[in-house]
Amino acid sequence: MAKPVISKKSAEKKPNIFVRMKRYFKEVGAELKKTVWPTKKDLVKYTGVVLAFIVVFAVVVGAMDFALVELLNLIVR
Fold first, then answer.
1. pTM for the full predicted model
2. Cβ neighbours for 38, distance < 8 A, ≥ 6 positions apart
């Protein structure tokens, strides 16, 4: 019978969980330092755009719902 082949990856031992957690949070911190955060003015503007889109979308969905209910009522009667 053939002997199982042990690859290099399975032969290498992973560092313990605390070392990996420390490395993870260190890398997250490094990525957050690279992030370009919006100014307060931009943030307010973007928030307004999102809220306006939500209102418009809700009105469109509500109008479609109302129209389809009325159409269904006409068909059923």
1. 0.56
2. 46
